[in-house]
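Per your request, structure below.
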C-alpha cells in the first residue's frame, strides 16, 4: 500500500515569521506529492487536533507528519 500523507505545520510561537510556511506547503503538495498540507496557528489545540482527525478520515490518510514546536504538550484523542 502506498502512503497517503498529510502534513500539518504549526505556525505559532514566531515560526511563521521565521519560515516561509506557504512555500513549504506548496512544495509538499507539488513536488513531494503530499496528499494534504495545511497550517494552523494553534495546531496542538483541540481545534487543530480535530482538523487533523477530520482530514485523516475524509482523505483516508495513512500517515501524517506534524511540524512545529512542542514544549511539554501531548496530543491525545
Amino acid at each position: 500500500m502506498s502512503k497517503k500523507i498529510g502534513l500539518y505545520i504549526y505556525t505559532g510561537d514566531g515560526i511563521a515569521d521565521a519560515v516561509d510556511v506557504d512555500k513549504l506547503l506548496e512544495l509538499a503538495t507539488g513536488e513531494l506529492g503530499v496528499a494534504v498540507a495545511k497550517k494552523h496557528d494553534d495546531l496542538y489545540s483541540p481545534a487543530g487536533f480535530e482538523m487533523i482527525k477530520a482530514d485523516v478520515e475524509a482523505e483516508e490518510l495513512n500517515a501524517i507528519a506534524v511540524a512545529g514546536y512542542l514544549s511539554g504538550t501531548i496530543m491525545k484523542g
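Residues 5-67 form one domain.

Regards,
D.
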